[in-house]
Design a protein that fits this description.
It is a single chain. The protein is an alpha/beta fold. It has two domains: 199 residues, Hexapeptide repeat proteins (UDP N-Acetylglucosamine Acyltransferase, domain 1, 3 Solenoid), CATH 2.160.10; 31 residues, no CATH class. Strand 20 and strand 21 form a beta hairpin. Helix 1 packs parallel to helix 2. The longest helix is centred in the N-terminal third of the chain and has 17 residues. The N and C termini lie far apart (54 Å). Pfam families: Hexapep (PF00132). Belongs to the transferase hexapeptide repeat family.
Length: 233
Amino acid sequence: MLKKVLANIVFSAILNFFTRISCFYSVRLNPKTFLYLLFSKKKDVFLRDAIIGSGVQLDSGCSFFNKPEVFGNVRIGRYTSISGPSTRICAEINEVRIGSFCSIASGVIIQEFYHSYQRTTSYSILSKFFKNSTSKNSDKISKGSVLIEDDVWIGSNAVILSGVTIGRGAIIGAGSIVTKDVKKYTIVAGNPAKEVKIRFSGNTVMELEESKWWTWSAEKIIQNEIFFTRARF
């Protein structure tokens, strides 16, 4: 345990000194993740009390706060913000892909796999009692990748389940359980999550889609303040 603590202190110090990745408080990194971040040339990544496992890929401008946990085949786009505590994003069979400029609040669970309820037991019995088995069976199954497009806001304590795609500009209400795809620019809420309203008119959606603002450079964004601050309907 002490070795891991010391290793993470060293990892954070190296990233703070040699890269544009800022690590604060007790950031915990898998050694492979540390090497990936060290040589990836990502810029302006902010990690505070984050727990990041192997396989995770981050783009420039990402921010992690207050102990979110991210593990496995997870890809996160530019400037996406993930807050804890109790936020967990994990993938083991397929991938979780999160776009740019997304906002993920505390207590959110995004999980690409789940337990099978069609076998004798839903318990993880294979990994507990059959560790040396040559069978390719797994305790975990998946309905497919979780795909979260750009500019999605996920409220506190929402759960995003396996195989779901959430369209660009969508908003997921706090406490929602998302079991099906969510259309672009749609607000959903509830258990299971259902459509509450569409954020914008068709013309506004068309304007936003044509602009592709989520691909703009930081410099271009700064030059277009009015584009981002005016009300849209």
